[in-house]
Automatic annotation (TrEMBL), chain A:
Belongs to the CarA family. Residues 2-132 form the Carbamoyl-phosphate synthase small subunit N-terminal domain. Small subunit of the glutamine-dependent carbamoyl phosphate synthetase (CPSase). CPSase catalyzes the formation of carbamoyl phosphate from the ammonia moiety of glutamine, carbonate, and phosphate donated by ATP, constituting the first step of 2 biosynthetic pathways, one leading to arginine and/or urea and the other to pyrimidine nucleotides. The small subunit (glutamine amidotransferase) binds and cleaves glutamine to supply the large subunit with the substrate ammonia. Pathway: Amino-acid biosynthesis; L-arginine biosynthesis; carbamoyl phosphate from bicarbonate: step 1/1; Pyrimidine metabolism; UMP biosynthesis via de novo pathway; (S)-dihydroorotate from bicarbonate: step 1/3. The active site is at D333. GO terms for molecular function: carbamoyl-phosphate synthase (glutamine-hydrolyzing) activity. It catalyses: hydrogencarbonate + L-glutamine + 2 ATP + H2O = carbamoyl phosphate + L-glutamate + 2 ADP + phosphate + 2 H(+); L-glutamine + H2O = L-glutamate + NH4(+). This is Carbamoyl phosphate synthase small chain. The gene is carA_1. Residues 1-170 are annotated as: CPSase. Composed of two chains; the small (or glutamine) chain promotes the hydrolysis of glutamine to ammonia, which is used by the large (or ammonia) chain to synthesize carbamoyl phosphate. Tetramer of heterodimers (alpha,beta)4. Keywords: Amino-acid biosynthesis, Arginine biosynthesis, ATP-binding, Glutamine amidotransferase, Ligase, Nucleotide-binding, Pyrimidine biosynthesis. Its EC number is 6.3.5.5. It holds the Pfam family CPSase_sm_chain.
UniProtKB/TrEMBL annotation, chain B:
Its EC number is 2.4.2.9. It comes from the Bacteria. This is Bifunctional protein PyrR. Also displays a weak uracil phosphoribosyltransferase activity which is not physiologically significant. Regulates transcriptional attenuation of the pyrimidine nucleotide (pyr) operon by binding in a uridine-dependent manner to specific sites on pyr mRNA. This disrupts an antiterminator hairpin in the RNA and favors formation of a downstream transcription terminator, leading to a reduced expression of downstream genes. Keywords: Glycosyltransferase, RNA-binding, Transcription, Transcription regulation, Transcription termination, Transferase.
Amino acid sequence: MSKRYLILADGSIFEGEGFGSRATTFGHIVFNTAMTGYQEIITNQIYHNQIIVFGAPTIGAGGINHDAYESIMPTAKGVIVRDVAEVSTNRQKRMNLNEYLDYHNIPGIAGLDTRALIRHLRKTGPQKASIVDFPDEHAFDQLNATVLTNQQVAAVATPRAYPNPGTGSTVVVIDFGLKHGILRQLSQRDADVTVLPYKTDAEAVLSLDPDGVIFSTGPGDPRDLPASVIELMRELQTRVPLLGIGLGHEIFALANNAQLIQLPFEHHGTNHPVKEVITNAVLYVPQGAGYAIDPASINHDQLIVTHLDLIDDSIQGLRHRDYPAFSVAFFPDSAPGPLEGTTVIDEFFDMMETKDRF
Amino acid sequence: MTKEIIDAMAMQRALTRITYEIIERNRGINELVLVGIKTRGVYLARRIAERLQQLENTTIPVGELDISWYRDDADINDREKINLGVDVTNKRVVLVDDVLYTGRTIRAAMDAIMDNGRPASINLAVLVDRGHRELPIRADFVGKNIPTAQNERIRVNVEEIDGIDEVSIG
């Protein structure tokens, strides 16, 4: 291992030991407070073009396993940890984190004071960062000159339709860079799933005669997506039971005339307490969001706020007043994370079961 | 042998969904009145009212209805007008019961409500629809459709009086 550096657009430099790939990369920096589930996090496509800082002290103790992938090809740009486990004893382990990152050309830095870094990021907010061999003026010039794409979804979402067959309810998933966890939840409930590209039109969706439609998670700012996505949501929510997750939740809000605000620092972790308004129940859920819905922008004749974050009161769930359509900002597939949020998927199936009554 | 078919979580979820459906169907909660059929329907109605209160910050009146005197096997001359405890005239009434079976209870309940005033509409919410209707009645909001045989028994337990939320079949 040799010294490598994380440099931030605000001029800060953090030094540590390199692991994984030796590549020099650029990305948005985000921190994640999850204690476990690093494999699911690194392979989640919401981290496309992002450098992930883990707050938990040791990462990698479970190695890389066959059952914890959230995508086929991870597209994160870096992994920053306090300590990378050299020994992983999980019997399902296929390789260790170091080998995995090297294989996928993702650089890592260990031995870095992640607590100081996270405190810094909480103050300074989202910004560009780079993992480099030497933090000189040239490296900062490169970082400042780098323009990161705002078309992240186009880079990670499926370009063509594919099936994930089952024998139960027919579900169409509109893919914005989905987590495999969503498909696993649908498989567990034996749904007959077709995943469609996000540039699909409503007619193509309805021609499959779905019992329900899911707008998936995905990376980036939904306002950078083509306007057709908003139109698709507006059309489908009046026609078929609908669930938006993550990016899909933000699209649901935008389609119903609410506005987005950028969070002062992103929410990434597996233990965020969220209140279900209707029952006052508290759920602990995994989150991964850079945006929230502006509460002042909500038309209460159109939308009901169903879930609130107990830490910062941000809106975590919405439901349409007139149609069986709802959305959650958090990840109800709970991969990784506590399983409580999966009741949202059950609610979606209940909704599909009863749709013919209306 | 009895078998649990709806557990506490699923019952909560069903009531939550019914609450949202009531809002959807009525385009809001204006002039809404819930009427629970004794015994367990009353508790279910109260829980729906609590949910509406949480969501909309509005108290929805909950009436209680004992239909004994309105049963079609009771003598109509013995019938006493029931006091629901709520005004139903020009209201949108949602009747709430635990199990929908023959439909006779619901017919009696509608008679009892009509004797109290002239509602704008009556909808029916039930936790379980077990089939075997003997009258042309259907529910607008259903927690779960459970196909049953005539000789099976559906038992709904609610925490308030039974100590547990559960639906079982036996």
